[in-house]
Amino acid sequence: MPSETHRIVFQPSGRQGEVPDGANLLDAARSLGVEIESICNGRQTCGKCQVTVEEGTFPKHGIISSAGHLTTPDGRETHYWAKNPPLPGRRLACACEVRGDLALFVPEESQARKQVVRKAVTERAIVIDPAIRLYYVEVEPPTLEHQLGDWDRVAAELDLRFGLKDVRLDPVLLGGIQQTIREGDWKVTVTVWQDREAVRVQPGYVEEAYGLAVDIGTTTVAMHLCDLRTGAVLATASRMNPQVAYGEDLMSRVSYCDMNGDAGLATLHNAIIDALNELAAEAAAEAGITADAITDIVLVANSVMHHILLDIPPVELGQSPFGPAISDAVDIKARDLGLRLAPGAQAHVLPLEAGHVGADNVGVILAEEPDKAPADEVWLIIDVGTNGEILLGNSERLFSASSPTGPAFEGAQIRHGMRAAPGAIERVRIDGETLECRFKVIGRDAWNDTWDDETEDGRPKTEEEGGERRKKGRQAGSAPILAAGICGSGIIEAVAELFMAGVLAPDGRFAPEISHGRLLWNGPKAEYVIAWPHESSTGRAIVVTSDDVRNIQLGKAALYSGSRLLMNRMGIDRVDRVLLAGAFGSYIDPVHAMVLGMIPDCDLARVLTVGNSAGDGARIAMLNKAEREEARRLARWTNYIGIAMEADFQDAFVGAMPLPHASDAFPHLAEILAAATARRRARGVSDVFTRRNRRPRPADTPEGA
Amino acid sequence: MEDAFDSLPAEVQHHYRNMQDDLYDGITDAVVGGTEQALAWGQSPANVLAHGLVAGMDVVGQDFGAGILFVPEVLRAAAAMKAAMEILRPLLTETGVEKIGVAVIGTVRGDIHDIGKNLVAMMWEGAGFEVHNLGVNVDADKFVAKLLEVNADILGMSALLTTTMPYMAKVIERLEADGLRDRFTVLVGGAPLNAAFAEDIRADAYCKDAAEAVQAARALVQQKGVHRG
Predict the structure, then answer these.
(1) Closest CA of chain B from A693, distance in Å
(2) CB B163 to CB A258 under 8 A?
(3) How many CA atoms lie within 13 A of A262 on its CB side?
(4) How far is CA A482 from CA A14, A34, A425, A531, A542, in A?
(5) Residue A529: beta bridge partners?
(6) Is the distance from CB of A188 to CB of A198 less than 8 angstroms?
(7) Given CB atoms, is A525 within the 8 Å cutoff of chain B?
(8) Most A CBs within 10 Å: which of B75, B162, B206, as the mutation test of the A interface?
(9) Interchain proximity A320–B24, CB inside 8 Å
(10) Dihedral sign, CA of A670, A672, A674, A677?
């Protein structure tokens, strides 16, 4: 079959496509826009282009992937591996030919462009009272008359000096206890967990207590290493969740466990544990310590990530009624999860609210404290992700819901969508008069309309040397970053800006009355050019299509209708404060979010982006043990509403599809909306699409004809 | 059976074209008024259904499939159609007009996604099918009981989760085990599905959207021959 092609999916980028049989894998990756490192340029010496074949069935992509779908290593690749022992499953992309369908994972170090993971820590005042405490004690050595055990002497001293009753020693420490005590000359520092268990014993006097706060997201894992005595964040590390290779969304991962049984769960569990161990080592190194000095780890995660972390089959979360195995918080030895920290280290996993409102949302409550909002105010908190979680209420009542937003806001299901990585368009401005567009990409400070004025290092060029320097820069391989695609914040801005400029009608159609060089019509559908080919790294224009707008409409309608149904439950008509949380929530512009109709009307000064609240919640629970109890109480106190089963969900959802909404008023956007309407009027755009004005289309009657 | 459109007087043709436009635009009052007007002129219920409503919904379906119309517009049109059907249905039964087919539809067990499935149900009604919408979280027992009870031609199943779509196969296996598979045309749809999956589970067809669901239902019922009445 000479014309045979194979389907390839690359993770974590999610890029995929068909490549001809026998194609070189590195070339195939590049043709699909997957940027893999290669220094030796295919001579199989540098080893930078390593990829892993994921074995198994991937129903979402409709493929069965197998290492056998690549040609076997040739002499040079075998030679390379002989000198550089491979990690299991690794291949050199430049040495393989494609012989069948493949799911491939490009490891962090092979990615030519590192992911920009935006889960930074927010400054918060936290009362430091961790579950982990250090106690220094001196004990008498045993004599022939007094042969009480060494540990019992320590325990007795803990009672006498600090009032700690009956502290037990983690059995894992038994083997080393006598040596430790003698090494410290009968003086030891004991790390005690929750006043009841010694999890680490060190010789002599030491001040060393470290903990990890972790947020396991569907797409991103973020970790903060903290000094448990001061609360200081010593290091932050994050990376893509490696489970992405087995399914981009939660349900695909549940399916993976379902279809591959115990082995499937083990694969996903081990993937996240390996990532956590690597992150812990990385963070520890950055802080100048070693991971075995870490005695506490607090984790938040959505329900599915939570179950997989705890090695619980997530199958029940994949189908109605979506019941979790356990809602309450879990205390478990870190070693029992497979984590390599201090041998006695404790792990604490925050409780779940409901089947699809997880520990991460409890973290958001801890961090943002809607339960402390004054009774005469109502706060709305939206954690934007593939599953949007919504909180609404105040100190008297708090409702939560999960809203099936879909992955559009993370750049998926968008023609030129990508995750937030260098080259992703993150800001878009469209001039309401000229309909021309400016944009900004991640990794480059200048907007594209001033790209010609900057040098490769971002400084304004001088007239004489600028061009020459840029040329040199390119030759040296430091070409400036061009647009590679559009990330979530970029697509939100693009759609909102198109509406504000009068290019999109309120129902989400590109206005057929408009003819413009950037608006390309293809039958009844159109696409608007954000970046021209010369501004893009793919050499092709980057566009927003009619279908992209539809997908954004579905996602934003899910968030809005979810918020609205909770507002109906509370019997309120407006909110006093809106917080946009989430890894990318910190970069959503409030005005654009509201113009789009993601969130209900509110004083724009009271719409705030709050960053990774879930991770902050984990940090709070790590630094203050009372907050762990508070989290348990809040998880039960919060009133979960299954909005999909609400009688008026369909009406609310459909009403929320137009921009910004079919009927709800947005007084705080009055000026912007009036300007958009005026622009549509001026161009003769009809807001109401009817059969009678369905034709003619611009293709039939070009402007000026 | 309805009269050929071309055989109708020009003003009646004009009236039906207006009704189709009103239906497309989802103006319920105008569609209901147009239905009453046509009946008052002595038009048969079959004529009003075919030329005033079904022909209008066909355009809605095409434009939805082509991405011109979106969910809210289609639901509005379907609501207008439904209001007109309240008037026509008793008359159609009275005059013994045959429906083109009977369909049972539902979202499979474990899945509570409603809207896309409702859209298909409404479009099928718009195309002249008698539709029994079982809602969400429907198990095999319920599907089979309803199929037999209403002597259906078509079974439509929806799933929006990769975790729930395998249940479609269970329903089909159940039909096979009961020796009922050949009696029903099985159509499946939902975001995570594709044609290969439909083939794997031995469904008759995968429908990408509501417009395709109408085409497929029509084609497969025609293939099976005249409805048993």
Answers:
(1) 10
(2) yes
(3) 0
(4) 20, 15, 9, 9, 11
(5) A543
(6) no
(7) yes
(8) B162
(9) no
(10) negative
Chain B residues whose CB is inside 8 A of the A655 CB are 72
Chain A: give the shortest CA distance to residue B58, in Å. Answer: 13
| Nearest of A133, A145, A150 to residue A191 by alpha carbon | A133
| pLDDT > 80? residue A2 | no
Tell me the shortest Cα–Cα distance from B226 to chain A, in angstroms. 33
Count CB-CB contacts under 10 A for residue A545: 19
CA distance A23 to chain B (A): 25
CB pair distance less than 8 Å for B67 and A62: no
Question: Which residues of chain B have a Cβ shorter than 8 Å from any chain A Cβ?
Answer: 20-21, 24-25, 59, 63, 66-73, 75, 109-115, 118, 136-137, 161-164, 166, 192, 194, 196-197
In terms of CA atoms, which chain A residue is nearest residue B56?
A691
Give B16's contacts (C-beta < 8 A, 6+ positions apart): B5, B8, B38, B51, B52, B55
Identify the burial level of B99 via C-beta atoms within 10 angstroms of its C-beta, where 0-12 means exposed, 13-18 middle and 19 or more buried.
Answer: middle
* Per-residue pLDDT at A4: 86
Rounded distance between C-alpha atoms, residue A534 and residue A556, angstroms:
32
* A649 close to B (CB below 8 A): yes
Ordered DSSP codes for A539-563: SS-EEEEHHHHHHHHHHHHHHHHHH
Asked if A286 has any chain B CB less than 8 Å from its own CB, the reply is no
Query: Cβ of A657 and B70 within 8 Å?
Result: yes
ipTM here: 0.85
Distance, in Å, from the CA atom of A553 to the CA atom of A598, rounded to the nearest integer, reads 9
**Of residues A635 and A442, more confidently modeled:** A635
Cα(A185)–Cα(A191) distance, integer angstroms = 18
Q: Please give the helix or strand (H or E) that residue A52 lies within, else none.
A: strand A50-53
0.90 cut: is pTM over it? no
Residue A473 predicted with pLDDT over 70: no
Segment A47-75 shows an average pLDDT of 85
Residue A621 pLDDT > 70: yes
A668 phi and psi angles, rounded to 5 deg = -75, -10
Take residue B192 and report the two structure tokens written for it.
């995570």
CA dihedral sign of residues A679, A682, A683, A685: positive
Residues near A683 by beta carbon (within 8 Å), at least 6 away in sequence: A502, A511, A513, A514
| Chain A residues 44-73 with a CB less than 8 Å from chain B | 59-60, 62
What is the residue-averaged pLDDT of chain B?
A: 91
* Cβ contact B114–A547 (<8 Å): no
The answer to whether the Cβ–Cβ distance between A254 and B163 falls below 8 Å is: yes
Q: What percent of chain A has pLDDT over 90?
A: 61
Residue A453, judged by CB atoms within 10 A of its CB (0-12, 13-18, 19+), counts as exposed
Is the bond preceding A314 in cis, omega lying within 30 degrees of 0?
Answer: no
A547 contacts in chain B (CB < 8 Å): 67
Closest residue on chain A to B71 (Cα): A654
DSSP strand pairing (A56-58 vs A5-11)? unpaired
Whether residue A645 contacts residue A401, with contact meaning beta carbons closer than 8 Å, is answered with no
Cβ contacts below 8 Å, chain A against chain B, sum to 92
Q: A598: part of which helix (H) or strand (E)?
A: none
- Nearest CB among B24, B137, B192 relative to A691 is that of B24
pLDDT in tens, A194-238: 999 999 999 999 988 999 999 998 888 999 999 998 889 999 998
Collapsed DSSP state (helix, strand, coil) of residue B155: strand
Confidence of residue A78 (pLDDT cuts 50, 70, 90): confident
Residue A112: which pLDDT band, with cuts at 50, 70 and 90?
Answer: low
